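anyone seen this seq b4? input:
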Amino acid sequence: MSVKIDRPPYVHNWVRFNFPDELSTTKAVVSFITATPQISYAAGQPIIRDRIALKLDRDTALKAARTKGHPKSRPLVAEYVNAFYDYDDERNYSGLPSYDQYVAPYSISRDVRIPVKPLIVISEGGILKPIFIVGWATMSLSRFQRRLLMTVLEDAVFSLTDFQASAGEFISFPRAASDNLRHPEVWKRGDFDLLSNAEMREQAELYVRAVAAAKEIVARRHGEADQQPEAEQDAAQPASVFDLFSGTK
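predicted toks r here
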């Protein structure tokens, strides 16, 4: 199970289990290792990409969103795709796609590299623009996590010669409490102060320590479960992640 963390997710998800303190990061990594995702927006990504690149019409896009991917996720994927179309009615992406399937890994350590992949890179007004789009229904990133995300994007993408003049875009569609509808939240390069080199080194070291601690916790928990009699294992309730840390629940 811990192999899962040895292949970290794309950076926009990776930052979600990074915190300024080691204990919180360790807890989040344990949750990532042991959790089974209930909802995925992956089916919406190629649909939105085709809207930007090929001007796919809304009816065709929503039909695809309601029939692709895991059945439990389809209503939310359709909601996400529809929110993007509302946004694009005003934004009107018109650039030509470039750098197809561009991925720029960001090194945390010798053995850990975080994949950084825009949904699409377009040439707009003569400037290459990486577009990052996520389907989250809530925007739960702290200011620290937002700064961490934009710092990684700056190093992995915007430091490259072809993108140095680009503002880029990072777009999500969180649900508003006022009307329960999804509205675009758009960040661009420069919207958040970047972490310093020293802060990034410190966070990378903290993350590596947290991963090591999380692996030990998960291994210990599974070892203890393996030692239980079979009947007890069937009856046992899964422990809270917070129970795994003495005095931290």
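Residues 231-249 have pLDDT under 50 and may be disordered. The first helix runs from residue 3 to 6. kinda curious what u guys think
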